[in-house]
Write a structure and sequence with these properties.
Rossmann fold; four-stranded parallel beta sheet; 11 helices; 337 residues
């Protein structure tokens, strides 16, 4: 795979040129972008998948939902529906997409919507009788037709965008210099014991602008595995093997966590947003206990009785959660006046 990526280097240059021209046309206002007089927050990245957008969206949901009506607007990747859709009790994961369906199942006091055309989606949300007071755009940093009022750019601790290269040689889907459009840069999936020396070294590598603040976050796993009607302490599985099924961009963080707990498991790894076939599900039914991610769980829980998921939450390091939260809340309040 590494050799193939090197061979495809000329295509990376072509792709980088195309992306640069597109961004230039937006920067020069030749391609039009729409901004808004109400709070629109974009959470995105420069690379393909696995940066922790979903737990960050959920962090913002928990922060804001008690104070105001909020909506999430996602593309609904690989969903079996078209156009604008708001989640309702009869909506299926196939219609909505796995990540938005996860938001819908966990937070019943917010509006969960999907539309590949973010501009149209925002317009439809604002036309609602009970329109949201803030909109969270999921994975929309490259969607230049919309200019969010606050852009939060995510980059993974062990795969910083500054060390990466454009597709297909690297994992970048946008130019590194586009990071300048972010208001905050969050380095995700950091070790819990990240020290201040390494923190400053990373900031120096990123070279944030004067208008930008760099935050650092880590992932916290729950102490229990959960199913629809029961929970199981992680330590209870130390004497019993199980099957781990993942269909996410980068499961390495989860695998490391489970191994650190001295658990014995086999790992069935699939591509991000994988659509599980009937044959695969029949194979899963032969397993005694299956553990998966929340995103995979919402696609499998109706098919399997012995299925558990492990919840995760993102949290801000170096006692800067209050600063991060204040930035979000002040932006929303100032733009709701």
């Amino acid at each position: 795979m590494a050799l193939l990526r090197k061979i495809l280097f000329p295509f990376s240059l072509i792709y980088a040129l195309i992306v640069s021209i597109r961004n230039f046309l937006f920067d020069q206002n030749i391609f039009k972008s729409v901004s808004y007089k109400f709070p629109v927050i974009c959470i995105g990245n420069l690379s393909v998948g696995g940066t922790g957008k979903t737990p960050m969206i959920e962090y913002l949901i928990r922060l804001l939902r008690k104070e105001m009506t909020i909506a999430t607007l996602s593309r609904g990747y690989k969903r079996q529906s078209k156009g604008f859709l708001i989640a309702e009790d009869t909506t299926t994961v196939q219609e909505l997409g796995d990540e938005p369906f996860q938001y819908f199942k966990k937070y019943n006091d917010i509006i969960v919507s999907v539309d590949a055309n973010r501009r149209e989606g925002i317009s439809r949300l604002r036309d609602l009788k009970n329109s949201p007071e803030a909109i969270l755009l999921d994975d929309a940093f490259q969607h230049r037709k919309v200019t969010a009022g606050l852009n939060i750019l995510l980059t993974v601790y062990n795969d910083l965008y500054v060390d990466d290269f454009m597709l297909p040689t690297g994992n970048l889907r946008d130019n590194k210099r586009e990071a300048k459009r972010a208001d905050a840069i969050v380095v995700t999936k950091c070790p819990e014991n990240l020290n201040t020396i390494e923190k400053e070294q990373i900031i120096q590598k990123i070279k944030p602008g004067r208008h930008q603040k760099v935050f650092f976050s880590s992932i916290r796993y729950d102490d229990h595995f959960y199913s629809s009607d029961r929970k199981l302490k992680i330590n209870e599985l130390k004497k019993q093997s199980f099957t781990l099924i993942t269909g996410i961009a980068n499961p390495s963080h989860l695998i490391h966590h489970l191994k650190a707990k001295e658990l014995n498991f086999e790992h069935l790894n699939f591509k991000d947003h994988h659509h599980f076939s009937e044959k695969e599900i029949e194979k899963f039914k032969q397993k005694e206990i299956i553990v998966t991610t929340e995103k995979d769980y919402v696609r499998l829980y109706q098919e399997l009785d012995h299925l558990y998921y492990l919840p995760i939450e993102t949290y801000i390091l170096f006692d800067e959660a209050e600063t991060f939260d204040k930035m979000i809340i002040e932006f929303v309040e100032n733009n709701n006046k």
